[in-house]
């Protein structure tokens, strides 16, 4: 008799989970443990750096090795009398939110490995030695570290397939659909974590270009648009190059600095968006012009 399609997918889930736990073991119990041991001896890099590289990999490993994998194994052994996995995944899915932290930290972790490999040859040598072990299968530390980032999307694909192949009358249908919804939310949670990290990084770069002025640096700000603009001087009918940063709550009118030491721009005027008025002008001499008025001042600007 041929195995039903949904059982094949459930078995694939179990097999990939076993391989995944081995990968997590390698990351946590081999790489992290050995690098930490050397860091404590003061031979390679500061302990803090090792912790930052591996983020919360220990919690992820413990969860999969002690809970997720054993629960799946138990369920697959009982498949003939209880053919379902939806309830198991539903029960454990909320814990997968811990991936948000790991995923958010991933780019920084890879960058730290590169930077410290150049700074500390003993650190580089130790990683190279571990990578020679059979368990590493000739793959780099960075390659192994990518696996947890890809795991949640993998669950989502397998579970989608599982739900699709379930017969309509299957006792697992409701639970499996709920489980898929939960995994989908977890994937969204981890994507949101990446998006938020990127937003904050981009914001920080903008603040550095503006010279890190205290009253401007605020992590809750959102940059909407930035770009060069011409300021029109009505006194002598000329234009000069300026630069605008539009945030959700303020418009910064800046002057590019000739010498880029530290900041790239100097903030000349800050207009709060809630009291700002914008009006288009029909000027034949200067096309694409508009007025921006705040409480203190009105600017006549020309776009490209």
Automatic annotation (TrEMBL):
Where found? Answer: Cytoplasm, Cytoskeleton
Q: SUPFAM superfamilies per the record? A: DBL homology domain (DH-domain), PH domain-like
Q: Which UniProt keywords apply?
A: Cytoplasm, Cytoskeleton, Metal-binding, Phosphoprotein, Repeat, Zinc, Zinc-finger
Molecular functions per Gene Ontology: guanyl-nucleotide exchange factor activity; zinc ion binding
Q: Domain PH: where?
A: 222-304
Cite a single Pfam family from the UniProt record. RhoGEF
Could you tell me the Gene Ontology terms of the biological process aspect for this record?
Answer: cytoskeleton organization; filopodium assembly
Q: Where is the DH domain?
A: 5-193
Q: Name one GO cellular component term.
A: cytoplasm
Protein's name in the database: FGD2 protein
State the organism of origin.
Answer: Haliaeetus albicilla (White-tailed sea-eagle)
Q: What is the lineage of its organism?
A: Eukaryota, Metazoa, Chordata, Craniata, Vertebrata
Gene that encodes it:
Fgd2_0
């Amino acid at each position: 008799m041929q195995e039903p399609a949904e059982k094949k997918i459930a078995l694939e889930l179990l097999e990939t989970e076993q391989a995944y736990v081995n990968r997590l073991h390698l990351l946590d119990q081999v790489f992290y443990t050995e690098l930490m041991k050397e860091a404590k001896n003061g031979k390679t890099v500061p302990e803090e750096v090792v912790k930052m590289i591996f983020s919360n990999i220990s919690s992820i490993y413990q969860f999969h090795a002690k809970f997720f994998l054993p629960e799946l194994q138990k369920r697959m052994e009982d498949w003939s009398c209880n053919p379902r996995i939806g309830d198991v995944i539903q029960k454990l899915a909320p814990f997968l939110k811990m991936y948000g932290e790991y995923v958010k930290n991933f780019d920084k972790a890879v960058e730290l490995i590169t930077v410290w490999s150049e700074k500390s040859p003993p650190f580089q040598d130790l990683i190279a030695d571990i990578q020679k072990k059979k368990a590493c299968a000739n793959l780099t530390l960075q390659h192994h570290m990518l696996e947890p980032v890809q795991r949640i999307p993998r669950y989502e694909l397998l579970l989608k397939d599982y739900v699709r192949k379930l017969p309509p009358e299957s006792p697992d249908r409701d639970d499996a659909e709920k489980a898929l919804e939960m995994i989908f939310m977890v994937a969204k949670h981890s994507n949101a974590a990446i998006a938020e990290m990127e937003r904050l990084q981009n914001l920080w770069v903008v603040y550095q270009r503006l010279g890190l002025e205290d009253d401007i640096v605020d992590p809750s700000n959102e940059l909407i648009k930035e770009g060069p603009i011409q300021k029109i001087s009505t006194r002598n009918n000329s234009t000069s190059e300026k630069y605008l940063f539009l945030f959700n709550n303020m418009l910064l009118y800046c002057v590019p600095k000739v010498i880029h030491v530290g900041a790239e721009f100097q903030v000349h005027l800050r207009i709060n968006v809630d009291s700002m008025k914008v009006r288009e002008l029909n000027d034949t001499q200067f096309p694409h012009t508009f007025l921006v008025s705040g409480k203190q001042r009105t600017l006549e600007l020309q776009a490209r």
